[in-house]
Each structure stands twice: as structure tokens, then as C-alpha cells.
């Protein structure tokens, strides 16, 4: 089943209570630290074709949440995101296919291309007359590509924070009832 067999073209809102923009890093190379960014805006347009579709996201980096206040505060400093000078992270899609989404990811003023593996989870009408669609997207990036270089060597080899970061998006899109009725 393809996206275009089930989704009408249009502008979809992102349901923030059923969406996560997250990441995973290795801590001391033995454990995982998971984090998310609950404050963001997103524009998702489903076009007549995949080539006409687009995703644009702006994330408020101050909202970083790893369930550890000290770590979150450190991530906000110039050692990592430098939110005083670069308060947002953006993603602008440049190509969407049935199984991938490529775009420009900008962090700290540095823009690099990133390709996410994309999975269309499904679509369903909701009890309020709208339509919901689910997507998952995953990508591996190297944080040093965005000048996120702070680290500490640990005894016995390895480092405190992995260079490779896994980005993951669990997204629920919503077509408001009035737009769903017009489709």
C-alpha cells in the first residue's frame, strides 16, 4: 500500500501528543541516552506526487529533554547546541520517496544533508471526523558534522558521548475535519 492510495493531497498538521522528535546516543559506549524535543513546528504537505510533497520542521533546542536536568542544561551550552546563538534546529525535505526522506538538517548554523529511512505506518479516520496518518523515520548522523564535538575520554578507552547519534521520528499527522470533508 502506498501513501497516495490512502492520503488525499493537502496540508497536514502534526499531532504533538502523538508525535516524538527524538534521538539516542551512547553513554560511555555501554548504555543509551534517549532524548526528545517536545517544542517544534512542522509543515507537512502531501502533494499529488511524492515529488510534490514536503516536510519542514523547526525545533526549539531549549526544549531538549533527556530526563536529566543537568545533562539537558549542558546540551544547551556552547559545548553542544549553543542555544544562546542558535536556538533552533531545522529540517527541510529535498526528496521524499516511498521509503526515504532526504533533506537539509541545520544545527548551529551548519547545514548537511540527511536521509531518513521512512515507513508509512497507516491511515485511519478519527472519532472527530478527521483523518490520521502515521509515519516513522530513522537516520544515523555523526554529531561532529554539526560542530557538536565536546567529549571526554573515559578510563579503559572510549568516550563519554558517542559520535554517532540515532535520530528517530514517530509522527501522527492530522487532516482537520473540514479539510477531510473537502477531499
TrEMBL record:
Pfam families: YceI. It comes from the Bacteria. Residues 11-174 form the Lipid/polyisoprenoid-binding YceI-like domain. InterPro entries: Lipid/polyisoprenoid-bd_YceI (IPR007372), TTHA0802/YceI-like_sf (IPR036761). Belongs to the UPF0312 family. This is YceI family protein. It comes from Ornithinimicrobium cryptoxanthini.
Amino acid at each position: 500500500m502506498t501513501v497516495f492510495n490512502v492520503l488525499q493531497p493537502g496540508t497536514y498538521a502534526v499531532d504533538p501528543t502523538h508525535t516524538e522528535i527524538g534521538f539516542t546516543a551512547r553513554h560511555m559506549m555501554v548504555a543509551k541516552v534517549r532524548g526528545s524535543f517536545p517544542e517544534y513546528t512542522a509543515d507537512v504537505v502531501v502533494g499529488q506526487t511524492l515529488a510534490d510533497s514536503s516536510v519542514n520542521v523547526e525545533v526549539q533546542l531549549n526544549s531538549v529533554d533527556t530526563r536529566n536536568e543537568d545533562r539537558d542544561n549542558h546540551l544547551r551550552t556552547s559545548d553542544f547546541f549553543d542555544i544562546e546563538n542558535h536556538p533552533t534546529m531545522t529540517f527541510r525535505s529535498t526528496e521524499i520517496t516511498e521509503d526515504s526522506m532526504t533533506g537539509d538538517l541545520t544545527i548551529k548554523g551548519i547545514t548537511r544533508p540527511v536521509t531518513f529511512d521512512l515507513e508509512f505506518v497507516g491511515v485511519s479516520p478519527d472519532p472527530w471526523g478527521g483523518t490520521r496518518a502515521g509515519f516513522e523515520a530513522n537516520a544515523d548522523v555523526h554529531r561532529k558534522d554539526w560542530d557538536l564535538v565536546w567529549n571526554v575520554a573515559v578510563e579503559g578507552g572510549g568516550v563519554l558521548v558517542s559520535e554517532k547519534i540515532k535520530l528517530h521520528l514517530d509522527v501522527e499527522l492530522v487532516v482537520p475535519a473540514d479539510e477531510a470533508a473537502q477531499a
